[in-house]
Amino acid sequence: MAKHEGGLESGRVRQLWHLLEPLHAVLYYAPEVFEEAEALGYATEERWSSYFPYRAAPLGAVGAEQVTSAFYSFSPRMVAEHVDPAWKIASPDVLLQARVRGMDRAYRTIFGDRTESPELAEAAALARRAAEATDTAGRPLAAANAALDWPDAPHLQLWHAATLLREHRGDGHIAALLVAGLDPVESLVSFAAIGAASAERFESRGWSPEEWAAAHARLAARGLVDADGTATDEGRALRRTVEEHTDRLAAAPWQALTIEEIDRLVERLGEFWVAVLSSGLLPSETTLGIGKV
């Protein structure tokens, strides 16, 4: 496996993302967080009405165009539908407070007495050291989250670290997609083509059938997908390159920890990762391709 300058294998970098991503993603699915959003006046019949303002809040009261740029894979129409009215309902500062309250409640529900455990506190301290080592140049979502104050409670520090590290990785992933010449909808079509998730799952990003078909035609013209939407060998190779670049770009923060400390973090995160997955809050299939790429 490829290694970054500090000697950490790319597979290890990806493993850490796999462990931390579900801890972050609770924000978008936990009923406690939906309740906080509803109390502010957001619709909660489906998750997108709170997803966009919660995730974008660190950026400030920016417009839909800026959010579309930072989130990349969502249809601009979908972003505008949810972002244009978002700051009229609540300010970003109010939303930041609400998401911390919601995550406090959600983690206490999921982890129970283990919320106050020394194992969680140790995991939080290690993850925080990595998160504080992120270089946020050229990474708007990572920079916006890095500018926020750290919560006092260890379980909220763990969530904040997971959030900062995943947005750091996500910003790098967009850079890798740009280098690969994959525009937002092409990035989804090419990902579905390698079996990362079903095409139906990617419909949640708001692109029309016509836009999806046009992107498929562009990728087919490049020799990256077959007529049935399956990736060609060239298409699979390109996506492998994207993931390898993403891993390399996500590796630097982990140089703040020794290999032994990373092993310790993986060990400590295990039970909390299992608790989140066992909660049933997260969907079994996501657009991130975790476990499939």
List the keywords.
293 residues, mainly alpha, 0% strand, globular
Provide structural commentary.
The protein is mainly alpha-helical. It has one domain. 65% of the residues lie in helices and 0% in strands. The protein is built from 15 helices and no strands. Helix 2 runs antiparallel to helix 7. The longest helix has 27 residues.
Topology readout:
Elements: H1 10-25, H2 31-40, H3 48-56, H4 64-71, H5 76-83, H6 86-89, H7 92-111, H8 118-132, H9 140-146, H10 154-180, H11 184-193, H12 199-202, H13 209-221, H14 233-251, H15 259-278
The residue-averaged pLDDT reads 93
Number of strands: 0
> Count of helices?
15
Structural class: mainly alpha
| Count of distinct structural domains | 1
Shape: globular
What gap, in angstroms, lies between the N and C termini? 14 Å
Q: State the low-pLDDT regions, or none.
A: 1-6
How much helix, percentage-wise, in residues?
Answer: 55-70%
The amount of beta strand, in percent, is under 5%
Give, in order, the helices and strands. Answer: HHHHHHHHHHHHHHH
Gyration radius, in Å:
19 Å
